[in-house]
Design a protein that fits this description.
Thiol Ester Dehydrase, Chain A, five-stranded antiparallel beta sheet, 3 helices
């Protein structure tokens, strides 16, 4: 890879302008997810979570995965660890972001460690974690 990668560099973000309800409902059906907070507003309200549908955690992780793969390539992700810190609601604007924490060349590859997160438009981090990607030398 000819690009210079430095600790502290931010990678290009991946943005979702408005989290789509339709995809939440489809994924709930595909995953056979019985939790109605992804497709039933009344259930969300009854649980005291507001009146908007809540995006599934796997979709939120996929936003981070999309960011990493677009930046480093489709087979580059070596590891991804994340924890959920806030709900993402239908219609919200979110962006997957990352910053390089380590770069090392070993065994014919460049390993890049990153701090990654999914940030809501109000600055709240809905997902926080770490990742490692590889680039061929």
């Amino acid at each position: 890879m000819n690009v210079v990668l430095k600790v502290g560099d931010r990678i290009p973000e991946w943005r979702v302008e408005s989290v789509p309800v339709e995809k939440m409902k489809i994924l709930a059906a595909v995953l056979r997810d019985p939790n109605p907070i992804h497709w039933d507003r009344q259930a969300v309200s009854e649980q005291g979570l507001g009146d908007s549908l809540i995006n599934q955690g796997p979709i939120n992780i996929c936003y981070i995965t999309n960011m990493l793969q677009l930046w480093s390539g489709p087979r580059s992700i070596r590891s991804l660890r994340a924890r959920f810190t806030s709900n993402v609601f239908e219609g919200e604007n979110v962006s997957a972001q990352g910053v390089i924490t380590s770069v090392q060349d070993t065994g014919g590859v460049r390993l890049v460690d990153l701090q990654v997160w999914l940030e809501k438009s109000d600055g709240t981090k809905a997902v926080e974690g770490s990742a490692q990607v590889s680039f061929p030398l």
